[in-house]
Amino acid sequence: MRDLQADLAICEAATPGPIQMKPCACGRCNQFLLSITHADGRFDPENAKFIVEAREGWPEAIQRALKAEAEVVTLTNQLYNCGKAVFERDQARQERDNAEDKVDRLEDELRMLQDALNQRYQP
Ligand SMILES: [Zn+2]
Predict the structure, then answer these.
(1) N or C: which end of the chain has fewer CB within 10 A?
(2) pTM over 0.70
(3) Is the peptide bond before 16 cis (omega within 30 degrees of 0)?
């Protein structure tokens, strides 16, 4: 696995972009020069290293970025589902508390009615 911090340093050491492709001036071949190429076809070491390392570094960085993006989607969905479950749990607890309060009120009312009946029909 490549060190992306080191790869980024290689990118930052190279000539700032964009780099242009220029057709060879010979008029006979189908080759290109880059805007960072010297007149004799050579590159400064920073640019040569950038091109060489980019061939392997860019695909790996893209693959890792795509994997990381997919993982972000997965984790975002898990977080959403977790938050939804917590909301539903809290809602169920509130409904249970409301039901318990209602049972308490009905039990109090039943006791009052039983007391009233006992007083009225006591022998
Ligand atoms: Zn040429």
Answers:
(1) C
(2) no
(3) no
Whole-angstrom distance, CA of residue 31 vs CA of residue 101: 84
DSSP line for 43-90: --HHHHHHHHHHHHHHHHHHHHHHHHHHHHHHHHHHHHHHHHHHHHHH
48 CA distance to ligand 1 centroid (A)? 20
The strand pair at 32-34 and 21-23 is best described as: antiparallel
Cα of 50 vs centre of ligand 1, distance in Å, is 24
pLDDT tens digits in sequence order for the chain, 123 residues long: 999 999 999 999 999 989 999 998 888 999 999 999 998 889 999 999 999 999 999 999 999 999 999 999 999 999 999 999 999 999 999 999 999 999 999 999 999 999 999 999 887
Nearest to 7 by CA among 47, 48, 61: 61
pLDDT at residue 40, as a whole number: 87
CA of 34 to the centre of ligand 1 (A): 13
